Each structure stands twice: as structure tokens, then as C-alpha cells.
């Protein structure tokens, strides 16, 4: 069984097929545009025939119109070996649901904060109860300074409530069920320079190979 999504991902890796994009460029003066386009088409066709003679198995595609893409995918699909699916259809990642919930909260915070707290926000899921309805998630946004905490909370807590509401909707769409998101903001000074904190938040660090 062939997975068409996998086929599309492998298009660039196919060494057996040569891909050439051909297009008509519009840069000529308006009064000569028709003549210029005709000459351009003729030039492209000559170039295409020359390549076809050199590479009989070449597939010509256009990123502008999409012409030739389907035949190319069919050709690549025929070249791939048959194989059973390696993972269940509903398994989209090796990461946990907690990871995606954390990323959705952090993504929402960064979207709403713009450049106010650049790269200083980390999200940690402290509690995740899937057995109850709605699903209970306790998430903490960690920042490095008190001033950043105040920005995240906003006047009267408006900013953190807005972040929580949007993040909850994203997580509900991801899980397909109702969610109660309990969102907090805490200060963890200089967490980006703390090896233990980075590992705790799921960041992988390069190995120390110094003698």
C-alpha cells in the first residue's frame, strides 16, 4: 500500500526523474508582448525538446500552473516498493499529547505578545487529566523576569485570560474534546541558561565532548 503523502515528500529525492520548470515570462513592452510571448513559447519548446532527447525519462512540471505534477507523482509512486503502513492512521507523531498542548499554549502566547517577550517564554504542563470531562490541563508559562510576568498577565489579568482562551480552543480542536485550561505565569530566573531547566522543558542539549 502506498501513501500518497509520502510520495509527495519524496519528489525532491527522486534521482531517476529530471524535473524542469518551464514558464512564460511577462517582461516585454506591451506593444510587443504578443510577439515576445510567441517567441518565448517557441524558445521554451525547443529547449524542452532538447532536454527530452537528452533525458527521455524526464518529467516537465510547472510550479506556476501545476502542469505535469500528477504524472510525476504517478511515476514516483510506481518506483516505490509496496509496504504496509508502519504506524496507525491516527498516530501523527512520536511526541506526547502533553507536548502538543504545551506547544499550543506557548505558540498562542508568542502570537499575542509579538516581540514583547522574545524567546523568554517556556510552557510546562504540570497536570493533565484525560479521564475527566472536560479534560483538565494545568499549564505554567515560565518567564525570566518579573517585568515579563507583568506583561504576560496584563492589566487586570486580561492578557493571560486572552492567551488561555485562544490556547484552550486550539487544544480542544486538537483533542476533539472539551478542555478546562488552568493557566499560570511564574518567574524562573535565567531559565535559558540553566541546563536543568532546559532539559525539564524538553529541550535537547548537545553532548559535552570536551576532554
Walkthrough of the structure:
With about 210 residues, the chain is α/β, with parallel strands linked by helices. The chain has two domains: about 5-80, no CATH class; about 95-200, GMP Synthetase, Chain A, domain 3, CATH 3.30.300.20. It is about 40% helix and about 15% strand. It is built from seven helices and five strands; from the N terminus they run H-E-H-E-H-H-E-E-H-H-E-H. The strands form two sheets. Strands 3-4-5 form a three-stranded mixed beta sheet. It has a two-stranded parallel ribbon with strand order 1-2. Helix 4 (about 95-115) runs antiparallel to helix 6. The chain is elongated and about 70 Å long. The two termini are about 50 Å apart.
Could you give the topology of this structure?
Blueprint: H1 4-9, E1 19-21, H2 33-54, E2 59-61, H3 69-79, H4 97-113, E3 122-129, E4 135-143, H5 146-153, H6 158-175, E5 179-187, H7 195-200
Parallel strand pairs: 1-2, 4-5
Antiparallel strand pairs: 3-4
Helix pairs in contact: 4-6
Task: Kindly provide the radius of gyration, computed on alpha-carbon positions and rounded to a whole number of angstroms.
Answer: 27 Å
Classify the fold: give the CATH topology of the largest domain.
GMP Synthetase, Chain A, domain 3
Largest sheet: 3 strands, mixed
Strand order of the largest sheet: 3-4-5
Helix content class:
40-55%
The fraction of residues assigned to DSSP E strands is: 15-25%
Overall mean pLDDT score?
78
Amino acid at each position: 500500500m502506498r501513501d500518497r503523502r509520502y510520495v509527495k515528500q519524496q519528489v525532491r529525492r527522486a534521482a531517476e526523474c529530471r524535473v524542469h520548470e518551464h514558464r512564460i515570462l511577462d517582461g516585454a513592452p506591451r506593444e510587443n508582448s504578443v510577439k515576445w510571448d510567441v517567441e518565448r513559447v517557441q524558445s521554451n519548446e525547443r529547449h524542452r525538446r532538447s532536454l527530452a532527447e537528452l533525458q527521455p525519462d524526464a518529467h516537465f512540471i510547472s510550479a506556476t500552473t501545476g502542469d505535469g505534477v500528477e504524472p510525476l507523482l504517478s511515476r514516483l509512486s510506481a518506483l516505490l516498493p509496496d509496504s504496509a503502513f508502519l504506524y496507525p492512521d491516527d498516530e501523527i507523531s512520536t511526541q506526547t499529547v502533553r507536548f502538543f498542548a504545551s506547544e499550543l499554549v506557548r505558540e498562542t502566547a508568542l502570537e499575542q505578545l509579538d516581540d514583547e517577550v522574545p524567546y523568554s517564554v517556556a510552557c510546562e504542563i504540570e497536570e493533565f487529566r484525560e479521564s475527566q470531562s472536560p479534560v483538565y490541563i494545568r499549564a505554567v508559562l515560565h518567564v525570566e523576569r518579573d517585568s515579563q510576568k507583568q506583561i504576560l498577565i496584563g492589566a487586570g489579568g486580561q492578557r493571560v485570560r486572552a492567551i488561555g482562551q485562544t490556547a484552550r480552543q486550539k487544544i480542544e480542536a486538537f483533542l476533539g474534546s472539551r478542555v478546562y485550561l488552568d493557566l499560570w505565569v511564574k518567574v524562573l530566573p535565567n531559565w535559558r541558561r540553566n541546563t536543568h531547566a532546559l532539559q525539564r522543558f524538553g529541550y535537547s542539549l548537545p553532548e559535552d565532548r570536551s576532554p
